[in-house]
Amino acid sequence: MSGREEPDDELLGRVFLSRVVEPGDEVAGRWVREYGVGEVVRRLREGAEPLPGVSYKRWDGLRARAVRAEPGRDLAVALETGVRFLCPGDVEWPGQLDDLGDARPVGLWVRGRASLRMWALRSVAVVGARACTEYGAHMAATLAGGLAERGWVVVSGGAYGVDGAAHRGALGTGGATVAVLACGVDRPYPRGHTQLINRIAEQGLVIGELPPGDHPTPSRFIVRNRVIAALTRGTVVVEAALRSGSLVTARAAQRLGRHTMGVPGPATSGLSAGVHELLRGDAVLVTDAAEVVELVGDMGELAPERRGPVLPRDLLEPGARRVLAALPGRREARAEEVARGAQTTEDDAIARLYELRSLGYVERHGDGWKLTRQAMISVRAGRSGC
Amino acid sequence: MSGREEPDDELLGRVFLSRVVEPGDEVAGRWVREYGVGEVVRRLREGAEPLPGVSYKRWDGLRARAVRAEPGRDLAVALETGVRFLCPGDVEWPGQLDDLGDARPVGLWVRGRASLRMWALRSVAVVGARACTEYGAHMAATLAGGLAERGWVVVSGGAYGVDGAAHRGALGTGGATVAVLACGVDRPYPRGHTQLINRIAEQGLVIGELPPGDHPTPSRFIVRNRVIAALTRGTVVVEAALRSGSLVTARAAQRLGRHTMGVPGPATSGLSAGVHELLRGDAVLVTDAAEVVELVGDMGELAPERRGPVLPRDLLEPGARRVLAALPGRREARAEEVARGAQTTEDDAIARLYELRSLGYVERHGDGWKLTRQAMISVRAGRSGC
Question: Yes or no: is domain B112-296 CATH 3.40.50.450?
């Protein structure tokens, strides 16, 4: 609801749909595309003739949900608890989700202070088995930490095993990470990850398609994976048995034209068999963060530096401008020091630094952040009034 | 010298060259192609003007070796100790070595009873690090055993580590294996593999470019690898550090248009780093023998069965005919049983069975050998005099 005073009909309509329609429902996606949000909401509320493409039984199920839906209340509760709702086309909406066509989320619930759109621009998914080995957990954490240190945002599913190790690896290096949940973002799942997911909401972002309080189901985990795949420039599978859910994410990434990568393991390990199957196809074998960045960065990685920052300094949000101003002229600074200079928290500084990274203003090397060469020119130009 | 009574000039000339010229010397290979063996031998013996492409110093080195060379004696000693010498074009010469162009061996010294040409038709190289891990040794032995059980011949370099495990894996399942040495075939190297290499000469083949008694050098190991690559339909690298000699074999295989495969391992293992580098290029990831055969077998794998045996039964060597006759009509038999029926040793039966496998007469499933469907038709036709 960024930038809006009053919830408009489109917004309330999409909040309503996020409560009534299952994530990834392409039939409902087609309704929205063909009739518009308002008309679909009206038909579901008034319970007239079913819209095309569903049985009476399924229509009745949607109707039953529609009767109970209270979008105004959902939105109010969310906002009170620091959760916002993004609609396609919003300033913060990550445009790459539009690649999902009619399976695009009707909206996204978001906890955390960073701009999802900015962060998603330079993000990589690191996913894998829940029941991973120590090797898998080690590789997930090391890769995620290495990606964070190179200024990349690590996206995963918040689950036990590889997902959790990836999130922790990114958090542990003062990095940016996004958890995409298959339930309400106010309802950390699995329960054992409550603390981790709350921590991600502080330093990173917790997002999902389901409205506050909604619970995960097996099929919701599966359809959630398409969001992870679409949001990121590429998906790395760390460990996965044959027929693992992570392979669904990887194949969705392939279909969407994103990079698909796999971390090899012993040929004797059943938890690497799914990854090896991917690697026998079109996926690329990766063994460290540098190899991942080499692939997902390609030309796009260098372009902003060459072209200079993509957004003029004056158009940055005030918080981002303060963080940019707090960066020393030539040397590197740690996020903590930048936060002090910008008179904000370290978590907020991290959010802004990764946004500025996406825009080409700053870069991260290990623990240090510094201005890019292009940004220095633009900052000096700004200061001298040119 | 198969099929010859008296050593002819070409044969003696090539024995001479195998003593005088280093393996893989492309300049000498060009001389042979342009002037013929006889003329090159004459020039080296008579020490006239150097042939083109070498310095006086190098020519003098070759001359010094030429003076000491005694090809007649070399050949006599070899034959006494059960070693034969193959020339390009001989019945037993594996034609695929011709792909090496001017780097083709001038000839090959061979210990063992099987036909190198037949065996090489359906062979795969399994190579890797000398200082391999237990995982590497396990994978090499398992792959080699699985290849042997599918009727494939396992080629390797006789070294410690992966090579030795591959040979043992093939031998252990009553399989066919070829050791390509970088020294005289009568001079097992490494010394700790004397027993293994002698056993390979009994049940399989020990081959090399160097004449009896000659010793290995670092460069001979490297140039030996091109023979392993050229002889086989594909090369599997099991474990290899970056800059390992096995990668030379793999890259030679790639250049020669053979299949190149790698067995993945933990991304944290330096002994898998070289393999992973290959797999990030054009090599195919394999985790078991079935995947190797799927690749190297492709159409060629099925063709003989469909077309029927490639050599008419009457043209088989008497030993192979006896082994073929000893196979039961419909059920499978172990090599031991076939050997009894053919009144020969088990080692000899194994040699013939893998030859017959290459010709499309028989196939192996686990421990059992049986006639192919096409062979049954042809055998019945032969018996009934049609």
Answer: yes
